[in-house]
Design brief:
A seven-stranded mixed β-sheet has the order 7-8-5-10-11-3-12, with no helix packed on it. Strands 2-1-4-9-6 form a five-stranded antiparallel β-sheet. The longest helix is centred in the N-terminal third of the chain and has 17 residues, at 2-18. The chain has one helix and twelve strands. β1 and β2 form a beta hairpin. The chain is elongated and about 50 Å long. By secondary structure, it is mainly β. 10% of the residues lie in helices and 50% in strands.
């Protein structure tokens, strides 16, 4: 119960700080930020835009359930938050994606996306949920992407990361290449 209370308080705090109305500045050269927090199978880690994704791999355990919190933020307003993952049953969500987010299939990928509104800009948004990792010796990728409005000029700043994931019969861990 204490663990659920802790997560509820964290989610409430993140939601109230990320979903504030803001003004799009005249000039915006600061890129947005994102975090992807994952917990489960005795593992907990927070990825962000500053990770060395080219040298990291997240090993997920076959049959394990994971809680996640994915956020995108920018003081000048967020235009897009996107998570691209495999379309297969390798990542099976336990609940539906909220209506405020789009959930589409493009080729061999599933794209979960939130679009901001320049007429009512927000400093960010949050996606939470649970998924189960399924498969044996499966190598896939989570792609994270966030863009802002880029100020009144409209030249968006972006932040992104491509996290290699490997699903198999092993403990959940981060492997450095």
């Amino acid at each position: 119960i204490m663990k659920h209370l802790k997560y509820s308080i964290i989610i409430l705090f993140i939601f109230t700080t990320l979903s504030c109305e803001t003004d799009i500045p005249t000039t915006d050269t600061t890129p947005p930020q994102f975090t992807f927090r994952i917990t489960g199978d005795g593992f907990e880690y927070v990825f962000n835009q500053d990770e060395d994704y080219s040298n990291r791999q997240l090993n997920l355990k076959n049959g394990a359930r994971y809680n996640f919190i994915y956020t995108g933020s920018d003081e000048g307003g967020v235009k897009t938050i996107q998570w691209q993952l495999p379309i297969s049953d390798y990542i099976e969500f336990d609940s539906a994606i909220p209506d405020t987010w789009q959930d589409n299939v493009s080729g061999l990928s599933r794209i979960i996306k939130w679009n901001g509104d320049s007429n009512n800009p927000l400093t960010g948004n949050i996606l939470t949920g649970t998924f189960e990792a399924n498969g044996e010796n499966i190598l896939e990728t989570f792609r994270f992407f966030v863009s802002d409005f880029g100020g009144e000029s409209g030249d968006s700043n972006t932040a992104s990361g491509e996290l290699a994931i490997y699903i198999g019969n092993h403990d959940t861990e981060i492997r450095n290449n």
